[in-house]
Each structure stands twice: as C-alpha cells, then as structure tokens.
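quick one
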Amino acid sequence: MCGIVGYCGPKRVVPVLLESLRRLEYRGYDSAGIVYLENGKLVKHRAKGKLAKLEAIIGDAIIADSHIGLGHTRWATHGAPTTENAHPHSDCTGELVVVHNGIIENYHSLRDELKTKGHTFTSETDTEVLAHLIEEYLENDLVAAVKKAVKRLEGSFAAGILWAKQPDTLIAVRNQSPLVLGVSDDLGTFLASDIPALLPYTRDVIFLEDMEMAVVTATEHRIYSLETDTEIDREVQKIDWNASMSEKAGYRHFMLKEIYEQPQAITNTVSGRIDLEHGTVNLPEINLSNADLKKIDRIVIVACGTSWHAALVAKYWIEKYAGISVEVDIASEFRYRRLLLNEHSLTIAVSQSGETADTLAGIRSAKKLGSKILTICNVVGSTMTREADGTIYTHAGPEIGVASTKAFISQLAALLLLTLYLGQEKKTLPPGEIRSLGKSLIDSAGMVEDILPRLQEEIKELIEPFYDARDFLFVGRGLNFPIALEGALKLKEISYIHAEGYASGEFKHGPLALIDRNMPVVALVPKDAVYQKSISNVEEIKARQGRLILIGTAGDDSLSSLTDNIIYLPEVDEIINPIIYTLPAQLLSYEIATRRGCDVDQPRNLAKCVTVE
Ligand code: F6R
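structure w/ fructose -6-phosphate:
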C-alpha cells in the first residue's frame, strides 16, 4: 500500500505535497518522492526511507515557483525500497510522470512488450510500465493515451499522471485502490489516497469509483467512466473531519492520542442511535427492512486483524442477545472458500479503512451469492461502504497510528449497537433490557475517560521488569478471549516481542508447555460468569512458575494470592467488559514498545491499510 497526492492551484506546490504526504505516511514509509513542473520542466526529488529523508534533501525546492505536482509515499510490493524504485516514475522522455498505489498484476508481460518496442526501464517496479505504456499511446492527447493504457492494466491501481506538455492538468485514474479529489474555490484542486491529506485545505471531496478517471485543473474537475467513455456527474461531499483531528495534539505518538480519544470515539459512535426513554436502538442506515431481517437466519462476519477481533466479540454478543447464529471468518480465508451463503444470510464486513483488499473481496463474493451486505466502517465513502447495502459508520475520526486502537473500540461500540438493534427487531430483547444495556454502553465512554490516565501511570511502572521479555502470552475466556488475541497482536506489532493470545480453557491443550519462570502471561480475569474457570487456569500457570500479570475487577482481593502484578478495573456490566479490558492491553503494548525505543506509530513492515493481497 502507498499514498499518493497531487495538487494544482495558486499555492506553491512543494509545501502542499509534503504536508499532504506527511498525513498519508501511515500508508507506507519506505521511500517517498515528489515531482513538480517548473519553467516547463519536470523536477523530481526522491529518497529512500521516511518522508523526513525526502524533506532533508528538498532544500531550496521548497520555494520553487511551481503550482502543479504529484507526491508519493511508498510501501514496497514490487522492487526493494530504494531511491530508484521510489515514485514518481517517468517515461523514456522524462516528460511524463506517474505515481501509483496498487499492484499491476500483468506488469511482467507489459514490461517485456514495451522493452521490445524500445522502452528503457530504470526501476524494478510495476508502476513504471504505466508511464511507458502511456508514452507508447501518446501523440497529442494525454486523456486518450491514459484511457488506452489503463484499459490494458490488470490488477489494482490508483494513479496520478502529469505531462510537461499539458502543464495545467493532472490526471487521476482508479481501479480497486482508493482515490479522492479535494476541491476548493480558493485553493485549487487536490488529489489523495485518503482524506487526512486533504484536511488542511478542504473538506469538499469527490470519491472516484472503480474504472474512473478524473481530469483536473486548478479550477475544474471532470470525471469519466473508463468503461463507457462517458462523463459522470458526481456530487461533492462534505467531510466532517477537521485538520487538527489528524495532528498529534501534544501527545508523543498518534497511537497514544488515539487511545485517549476513545471516550469520544464511543460517544460519537453511539450518539443519536440509542433512545433511552423508549428503550430502542435506531439504525436506519443498515437498510434492512423488517422483511429482510425476518429472512436472515445466519450472520457471517468477515474482517482482518484487529477488526477480526472486534468481530469475534460480536459473535458472543449477537448469539447471546439476538439469538442469531454467527460465524466469524478471517477475510483472506473466507474469500477462497466455497461459501454457503444465500438471501437468508447477512454478511458483515468490519473494517476501519473500508479498503482492505481481502475483506472487500469477501463481501463481493458474498454479494454474488445473494447475501445482504452490511459494513461497519470508519472511513466515509470508502469502497466497502459504497458496495454494501448498508453501513454503520463508527465516527472514530481519522486513525493515523498503524496499530488500531480507537477504531477497534468504536467497532465494538457499533457492533454492540447492532446487537441491541437485532435483539429489538427479533424481539429477543425487551425495551427495558435494551435501555439498561444501552445505558451501559453510553456510560462506558465516561468510564474509559476516568480510567485511562491512572491506568497509564500504573502500567508504566508495572512493565519495568517485563519490557525486555522475549515472549508474552495473553489469556482470556468468553468475551475476553478476543481481547487476549488483540492484546497479543498489539504487543507484537509495535514492540516486536513474540506474543500469542489463547482462550484460557485451551491453554492446557498445548501452550501450557511454554510456561516457565521466564514466561510473562497476561490473564484477563474479570468477575464474570466464567470467573472461577479463569482463575483455575491461572492457578495452573502459577503452579508452573509463569510470570503472571492479572487484569481483574476492583475489590477482588483474592488475586493478590496469585501475583503482585495486578491491574484493577472497575466493575462494569459484563457486556462492556471487552471495551474496558482492551485499555490495559493497549497501554501495556504502548508502554513496553516505547520503553524498548520502538517507533510505535510506524512499526516495521506494516502499513495502515492493506489494499493488496
Ligand atoms: C492492527 C491493525 C490491523 C487492521 C487490519 C484490518 O493494529 O490495525 O490488523 O485491523 O489490517 O484493517 P481494516 O480494519 O482497515 O480492514
């Protein structure tokens, strides 16, 4: 996955490109580059490494008198992360440049064909074929050449194109990789892979759809279908995020800021959707009529990574409170299986970005079989939301840290809302129970707010003897089993410590063999319906001298006979436990990772949004 940006307008282009790239760096950061047009010539700057490396070599170019250009931040898929492979890529003349996000799957054959025709390649990337392919078709009409070239591509692409001989125009094309235009009467026209790049300049945006092309100047934008060759009239949408929502606001890392934004994320997600007076939940946006809901006898939830963990929690909730059978699937597995779905099934995609390739492919397959599709998503207008029958937006605001935190909490809130809604419509939950569970959800925001500062201080101290451990295990039961998985994922992705999550009851079926006096084990042991069982599992770990960290309910003094390392959380309605128990898991990972000097916002090898398989 990569980030692309483009600008044409009255502002000097270089600072605009760099600022926008900074906001997309979560999409990839192994190299970066920009190109702009100055005195009729294209000027390129590229650097291996993070954006700071590019900024360091820009020098006086920052004040270049140029008002049109493109930028790119790369996460390598084809070709090593080197300066030569950094975008923008040029054609043979050096007069045409391309930035690209996605994978051109047939690039080998196109490259061979273009080489036979005399084109010279200077990188190992798939992207460079697009520059040469356009060159091959280019006479005087750039739009016509781009159309011809793009029709030959297989795979996914979002690309920006600039030709020195058409100095006022940028071209953008999209298929299966996100691309959005930003428009402003005063500031010109912008192009970006994601909305945060546009926020300092405009909140008026236009999302491109698959196989569409935009031709933009500082004052105009036209959108065409690449399939029908017709012009499309697309409405401008107003985004209700602002620029400061994607800044660090005094926090050391985006991840920490986003952890502290979780109370707001819960509130934003639930507000206006629960009517406590009548004990009802309002979700018209799911677009399922009573007749549709009556038909549904099975729910399948598909997701990846952290979003998959949220889906696992939802299984417990929906089955218990709405009485509907739920299967949860990892999207990369789901998409290649024989799917036994039909019009009686509801397929739910849970995705922060709404662009994850496997999840998107999963819902496309389910749709073909007649299943209704619902998305739980954070990014307004993203591909999944456009393809689903309905969307519950999580309204967590932009999430920049690669490790998902507030998006996860708001997914839990949205999935709990959905549970209550399904219980209401299926008449398995009376209004009184919806009111009380709904109130617990609403109140959880304030509780999270109260807990966080104290928890962070406690955890900072607690991790001191543990931060240099080689391995970590997390265990939990019931609703807290997915949270154990999430704790392990957070820790491994940002601290590079090997960590695994297990269902407590499963532990004795193998993993118990790992326990010795060096193995830290984080056990989630709230006073819930399975408390006694969880404690028995913890005893087994203690008996083998595992280094226990217990996370339990305030007032549960019996925990102190098991270890001195205890984090107490307030007693809450059991349904809210996954929200509250996620907090120590997130902060434990954050504090350990920062103690180890890791770059928590941009962990190695990872990108925020995985738009390739
Ligand atoms: C982990 C993390 C990833 C994402 C996964 C799915 O912290 O962020 O595991 O949850 O890549 O992404 P979305 O939710 O955008 O589909």
